[in-house]
Amino acid sequence: MPRQPRLVRIEVEVREQNGTTTTEPSSRAEGGADAGAGVRARWVAAVRKAKLWLIPVLAAGFALAIQQQIVELPSRISGMWSQDGHAGATSGPDFAASVEVVRFDEDGAWFATSGDFRPSPAQSRFLAQPMSSASKKFEDLLRATGAVNIGKQTLRLTLTGRRDQQVNVLDIRPVIARRASPLSGTLFALGSQAGSPTFQVLYDLDRPNPTARKAAIDKDTSEWRPGPPFFAGTTITLHRDEQNVVMVRATTERFYVAFRLDVTYMLGDQRKHTVIDDHGRPFQVTGASRSTDDREDYGRVFSWQGDYSMCQTAGPNPDPARHCEGG
User: Fold this and answer.
1) What single-letter DSSP state applies at residue 232?
2) Winning range, highest mean pLDDT, from 30-34, 38-42, 79-83
3) Fewer beta carbons under 10 A from the terminal one: N or C of the chain?
4) Can you tell me the distance from the alpha carbon of 263 to that of 95, in angstroms, rounded to the nearest whole number?
5) Do residues 237 and 246 make contact, with C-beta atoms less than 8 angstroms apart?
6) Which of left, alpha, beta for 62 (phi over 0: left; psi -120 to 50: alpha)?
7) Residues 307/125, Cβ–Cβ less than 8 Å
């Protein structure tokens, strides 16, 4: 039988780039050709060389990533700053607008619904209570019935600047969403007290194209009437966090009117618009419903009594257990 080669251990020298010498084990067949020691030696040398150039490449990539984060940091901070509404903000409204429907004691209150309001027994008992008409529950009841102010609607607009750049309000005018005959369902008639509130802007919604006009007292009637155009010589300016309160009153004698307010303003050299409404719904006001002989014409009437209760003074099915003043 032929003799089998015997494997013996030899050492292969590998000289690294730094000049040091190491030995790596290999195998060869005694009395035969090299069994791959040269290939293994070259592979080990290649791995060690790869370590020498891979480490600086990885370090350079890591340094580049850190540098990119540092470069982007100011813009990220600016974005966070803008979201909080501070200096340099580019998102959000140019100014904030809040609106409050105002009823002055001096004005009294006259409300009308589009349909007939027939109170439930519980509502009748509430309306008959002294001071019921002066309570929040009464206001909630009016809101639930869809009652609308008769003759006039007063709004308090609070405008607040939201930009470092000055905002110049050039005009605030009504945009008519609907115009129809006056509401004639149920009338809630409340009295008024002495005194006269102060207004800045009046809108006559009976006009085809109502504009903001200065409020003026009629010397003959002592009532508020529209004067000259308000914004002809007036500009409302808003700086950052600065507030400006504008009292406006919209009036009508002939129609039911639903409207919003369109604000025209300048931000730098840009002419812009924004719309103000009643939480997504239009503001409303209605003229008084009158018959051909100019008398009030409603299907049902509740009137203010001396103890500030409300009593039905006209219409079907009045409360037989209660005598109304003026009924």
Assistant:
1) G
2) 38-42
3) N
4) 11
5) no
6) alpha
7) no
